[in-house]
């Protein structure tokens, strides 16, 4: 029993992870450049805490004086590592399965805005499809988390919140482990034609949401998993907003929705991959056909995505 306890403790320690770097517009910026990196790689487990916004609290974050320029309509790569000095083969323990997500918030000053409160909209999610989890794809792809920046949003400064949720202990309340950091970015080249519905963080998750309180060990490869949080915003309007009352954010002019219970995802055929799901790549054995109207696009040799 003592040996098992030590092994469990070692596994838990290696499971921690940090979003340490952003690759954008063909440039790889130094570690911590433009990112509010924490001093500890542990999770946030209280979804109602302000720490769930850009990390902090038990993992004090270090401010950054840089803002990264990002072209609207491009794909950026959030780089995840176990620690700030870990290599690409040390991302997070493979047993820690769950979704990946990304959010944007338009701000006046990305250097100083805390991110707490309204203004956030989701731009990426990848949950569970035919036994494949979003976190597993990031781990298997050397820590790269692909995030499409919408082409139709306003230019200006934003916080980009990249997140991985580990659900190995989520069978009991407070067991889900949330990992997130915020990058400070300046989006250029957007058309400015869209005003996304926005949401408050904290507020997008509840401790008993079906995507937060879930026993993943009782799931089969075909089991449906409800990704937590609001729907993904898309420029073609295919995502739908919540039904709560709207509030106008004074800083951004965006419309903020009071978050209802997480919507059920649209069911897809058992051999059809949904939007943002993996649809191909080296050693990929899942569905290679995307749900209409999406097509399977090559991100790299290891990861193809429906978009």
From TrEMBL:
Residues 271-307 form the CBM1 domain. It comes from the Eukaryota. It is found in: Secreted. GO terms for cellular component: extracellular region. One of its GO terms (biological process) is cellulose catabolic process. The keyword Transport does not apply. It catalyses: [(1->4)-beta-D-glucosyl]n+m + reduced acceptor + O2 = 4-dehydro-beta-D-glucosyl-[(1->4)-beta-D-glucosyl]n-1 + [(1->4)-beta-D-glucosyl]m + acceptor + H2O. SUPFAM superfamilies: Cellulose-binding domain. The keyword Transit peptide does not apply. Transmembrane segments: none annotated. It is an enzyme of class 1 (oxidoreductase). Its main location: secreted. Its cofactor is Cu(2+). Gene3D superfamilies: 2.70.50.70. InterPro entries: AA9, AA9_LPMO, CBD, CBD_sf. Residues 1-15 form the signal peptide. This is lytic cellulose monooxygenase (C4-dehydrogenating). The lineage of its organism: Eukaryota, Fungi, Dikarya, Ascomycota, Pezizomycotina.
